[in-house]
Structures are given as C-alpha cells and as structure tokens.
C-alpha cells in the first residue's frame, strides 16, 4: 500500500515537472489545463514547504526561548550561590576571630541566615533544572548541603564551646576537601550551562536561516501565484475575449472576419476552430 502510494506520488510529481518544463520552453502543444495544473502543482509543493518550514521555525524558536530562560536562570542561581557561599565563609571567620560572645552570636546569626537563604536557593533551583542536568545538579546539591551542615556545626562549636573550637573545626583537611569539591562541582555546572548557552546561540543561527528560507519560499509562492494569474489572463481570458469579438463581428454580418488563434493546439485553438465553422 505504501509502495503504491509513494509510486503514485512520484509519478504525479514527475508529470507535473514535465508539464512545467514544457510550459517554460513554450511548447505550443501544452494545453491551458496543463499550464494551470503545472503552476498549481508547484504552488502546492511550495505551500507544503512553507508549512514545514513554519513548523520548524516555531519549534526552533520555542527551544531557543526555553534554553535562553534556563541559561539566564542558571546564571542568576550560580551567582547567588557563589555570593552566599562567600558570605558564609566570611561569617565563619568572624565567629572564630571574635573574642566577645556578643560578636560571636552576631556572626553566628548571620551565618545561619545565609545558610537558610542558600538552602532556599537550592530548592528553587531544583524545581527548574533541565532533566539532562538533574544528576549533576543533585550531586552539587548534596555537596552544598554538606557545606551547610559543616558550617552549622562550626556555629554550634563557636557558641557552645569557644571560638577556638570553631577555628579548629574550620581549619582541617575535611573542610578543605568539602570546599574543594564544592568549587569543582560549581565549576562543572557552570561549564555545563555555558555549553547550553552556546547551543542556544547555534539554535538562534539556525532559526535565522530557517526564517530566511521561509521568506524565500513565501516569495516563490507569490511569484507562482502571479504567474498563474498572468497565464489565466493571457491564455484564457484574453484569448476568449478575442474569439468573442470575432464571433460578434461575424454575427453582425462581417463573414470575412477572421477568427483568431486557429493555429493554437490547446483548448482555445479548438474553440476558435469551432467558432470559424460556417
């Protein structure tokens, strides 16, 4: 069934192409119907391409918009996370460098506040993560939670024991390892979103090319429509008007009046020959 359909479609396209070539070459045996059908066939093909390219443009534009939104949102989140991590580190230093309990409490409150904000940012970020980045984001989120837990323990030690105990907790290999892995995960996530941004730029280029093709196809459709109008006016309307005027003259008594277009080999020629019969 499919093979028959494809074969019929190919045969129709070939016939249409042959008719159009004959029309372009000005073949005298080409009928008016052949001319009209050839132009209409190519106009249909161009219209189909217009439809396909329109759908493609919409798809590209939609994907581009989503990728741009994701990239912009990720850039904001990464910047916010970086700022909060830096603020938490600074508040940590304030805790173990202070000598007054009131100052320690002040820095501790700020650290807890920043930790809560960082947790909220990660929760909101997780709701908008692209499925392709979900695994990488979850690993990064766990690292951030480890960092927060580590800093909250530093707060507890600074308040319940002493700033020196907080310094001891902060200045160890485990802390440096957590910070190093956190920075590595953040950089990897940044690279991933940078790559996504470059892909969005490439998609924008493809969309511009698709829009250009769409414009050219629209122009081709207009040209074919104009040609169709010209063919109808020249091959049908104008010729019928000439024959009608000749028959009017004959009916008025001018029997020597010549009927035009007798030598044509299309429908107009046949009509002229019948009109010329006595």
UniProtKB/TrEMBL annotation:
Residues 234-273 form the HAMP domain. Residues 179-206 form a coiled coil. One of its GO terms (biological process) is signal transduction. GO terms for cellular component: membrane. InterPro entries: HAMP_dom. Keywords: Coiled coil, Membrane, Transmembrane, Transmembrane helix. It comes from the Bacteria. Gene3D superfamilies: 6.10.340.10. The chain crosses the membrane at residues 36-58, 210-231. This is Methyl-accepting chemotaxis protein. It comes from Bradyrhizobium huanghuaihaiense.
